[in-house]
Design a protein that fits this description.
Elements (H helix, E strand, L loop, with lengths): L1 E8 L4 E6 L7 H13 L8 E3 L17 E8 L2 E8 L4 H19 L4 H6 L1 H11 E2 L2 E2 L4 H8 L16
Antiparallel strand pairs: 1-2, 1-5, 3-4, 4-5, 6-7
Helix pairs in contact: 2-5, 4-5
């Protein structure tokens, strides 16, 4: 099960947070802990790690001793992080992160941090098309784009407007 989806920049500022399990402590503390785990890793290391220290923050719905794992991917200045239980496939979650990024790219024409700041509602809508209640619903980028097409009526982010 997916317990949380987080996107934060290289400074640790959260740009999107979605929790599918109850939070036992502050969400900001959880984001800071995950950021410290992810940002301190060397670039050559694998993109997932066991994180028993997160169990104090997130209590899985069926807390029968399941351990939590952090699966992340870094794209330019953004970290895309999924907190999952050990029953999830790490490679499957990395593919899911790729699907999410491709969907965001098609919605925002090469997504950047400002897109997530100014159009957070659409980013949450895209995520909701992919994941509901911690379970994966859709992995086909074309289907996700088709479901989100009516929402896309926003102007480009300030950094993408054509010069006058």
């Amino acid at each position: 099960m997916i317990h949380a989806v987080l996107i934060f920049n290289t400074s640790g500022v959260p740009r999107l947070t979605k929790f599918y399990s109850p939070i036992e402590q502050s969400a900001q503390g959880l984001v800071e802990k995950i950021y410290s785990l992810v940002s301190s890793r060397q670039p050559g290391l694998c993109n997932f790690l066991d994180a028993p220290e997160l169990e104090a923050f997130l209590k899985p719905k069926d807390s029968d001793g399941e351990k939590l794992r952090v699966v992340y991917r870094s794209y330019a200045t953004l970290y895309f992080v999924f907190v999952v239980d050990v029953a999830e496939s790490e490679l499957g979650i990395l593919d899911l992160i790729q699907v999410f990024v491709e969907s965001l790219d098609s919605a925002f024409e090469n997504v950047c941090e400002l897109d997530l700041v100014f159009h957070f509602d659409e980013a949450h809508h895209i995520l909701a098309e992919i994941i509901q209640g911690g379970l994966v619903l859709e992995t086909n980028v074309n289907e996700i784009d088709r479901a989100g097409t009516p929402v896309r009526t926003h102007p480009p982010s300030p950094s993408r407007r054509a010069p006058r």
